[in-house]
Amino acid sequence: MRIIPIASGKGGVGKSLLAANLAIALGQAGKTVYLADLDLGGSNLHMILGVRPGREGLGTFLSRPGMKFEDAVMETDYPNLRFIPGDSEIPGLANLTSGQKNKAIRNLRSLQGDYLIMDLGAGTSFNILDFFLMSNRGLIITTPTPTATVNAYLFLKNAAFRVLHSAFKRNTPAWTYLESLKKDGAALQRVYIPKIIESVKAGDPESYAAYLERAAKFRPRLVLNMLENPEDADKAGKLRRSCQQYLDIDMEHLGIVYRDDIQDTALRSRLP
Questions:
Q1: Distance between CA 184 and CA 163 in Å, rounded?
Q2: Which SS3 state, helix, strand or coil, does residue 57 take?
Q3: How far apart are CA 41 and CA 253, in angstroms?
Q4: Against a cut of 0.85, is the pTM above it?
Q5: Which helix (H) or strand (E) holds 256?
Q6: pLDDT digits (tens, 9 = 90+) for 166-190
C-alpha cells in the first residue's frame, strides 16, 4: 500500500480539497483507496466529500478502549473509496499522546489497499511530522503567497530535523551534538543542516552513514496551489532551491493548480 500524507505549513492552502479529489480520482481509476482525516483538531474532510460522519471515527477509536479500528472506517458512494473521519468534536484530540499516535500509525499501516491518503493538520507539531514521515514521498501543499511559502519551508525544516534526529541512535556523539544544538534556540535557527552533517561526518562516521541512508529515501513532493498568475510558478523553483541548499532535501515538484472560484460553489454544495 502506498501512503500519501498531505501536509501544509499553514491552513487555507487547499490541502483537504486536494486530498479528497486525489482519493476520488484514484478510486475512479480502479484503485482501492482509504482516505483518513488526520486534522484531529479541526477535521472537516467529510464536508468536502459530502458524507455524514459516523458516530465513531478515528478520535473515538483512540479514546475508547476496546473499539475495533474497522468500526472507524466508513463506506462512501465513491467507487473504491473508504473514509476514516477524524472526530474533531472530541476535546483535546489534537494533542495525542505518543501512545495514541503510535496506535493510530500502527492501525493505519495495517489497512489493506492500494493507497492510503492522509489529510494532516497544518503546523509542525511532532504528531503531524510523524504522520507525514510515515512515507518518504509525502506531499507538501502551498500557495504563492509569502506567508504560505515561508511556512511550507519551515514545515520542511522541522521535518528534516525530525529525519536527522531519527537517524541518530541515543547517546551517540551525533545525538549528543544535536541535543546540545536544540538547547540553544538562536544557534539552531542560524545553523544549516548541511553544516550539521559536515560536523557529524567528522565526529561520528557511523551516525553520518545512518543519516545518509535515511535522507536518501526522504523525497517529499511539492504542489503549488491557487495560482492567479502564471509567473507565480517560479516560486516553486525558489522553494526547491532553498530546501536543497539549506535543508539537504531534494524535493520533487509535481506541478501547479490554478485558482478556480467554482471550488467555493462546490464546497457550499458539499461536492468535491
A1: 19
A2: coil
A3: 29
A4: yes
A5: strand 252-258
A6: 899 999 999 998 888 888 777 677 7
